[in-house]
Amino acid sequence: MPLKTLVKLRRLWHLTAQVYISAQTTFDLNLSSSSVTSTKTSSSDHSQSSLQQGANIVLIELPGSKGTQSSQLSKHYKICRLSTGDLLRQATQDQSSSEGQRIRKAMEAGGLVDDHIVLSLIDKNLTKPECSNGFLFDGFPRTINQGEQLEQLLASKQKRLHAIPDDLLKRRTLGRLIHKPSSRTYHEEFHPPKESMKDDITGEPLYRRSDDTTEALNARLNTYHKQAIPLIDFYHQRNIHRCVDATKK
């Protein structure tokens, strides 16, 4: 980790984070004391305080269930969203890279990419100016080893698990559609396009992600369930873990 990154991240350790739970309720988290208080405030209050205070957030969730929440949280708190899924997919675009091809094969098979590759991608992106007010990790860490390395680098204070049944998760994931040129997303059931399999704005075709198959999702779920419980215990023992019902809007 470059020195300038460590200096920047050390400055973030002392921020007070507000974690958005629903449209009406937030939990104010004083990071120095780890106290939690339920409060109700207006959206304008949220926007002003989040812009000034920032937040450091890690989401630990089932695959396919956290993209919407992480996007909303990062916009709300004016922090950078580092999605390891997006970073890995970008890495696969380089056809001349053997590392990119290894990542592609692992993703299409529903497996997980080696820790050192994921950590390297995150390291490169944490130096971006948009991360100076805080950061949200989407899809990382997945294992205790990753959690320990992240703890050593960041000493992050707030971890959240979005709880959702496997059957609902499968409905959410397998129905996803994407307009590749713009990255606009739709869902067959929960956010359908106006015309089947066509982008609302351009009328161009929509596609499913190559790893959104029943076989790949089942493999990802099996891997998640094996690894998530010890990782959740890891953070729970440090009193920095919260569970959120992800079945609600």
Automatic annotation (TrEMBL):
Gene3D superfamilies: P-loop containing nucleotide triphosphate hydrolases. Keywords: Kinase, Nucleotide-binding, Transferase. One of its GO terms (molecular function) is AMP kinase activity. Signal peptide: none annotated. Residues 176-211 form the Adenylate kinase active site lid domain. NCBIfam families: adk. HAMAP family: Adenylate_kinase_Adk. Belongs to the adenylate kinase family. This is Adenylate kinase active site lid domain-containing protein. It comes from Rotaria magnacalcarata.
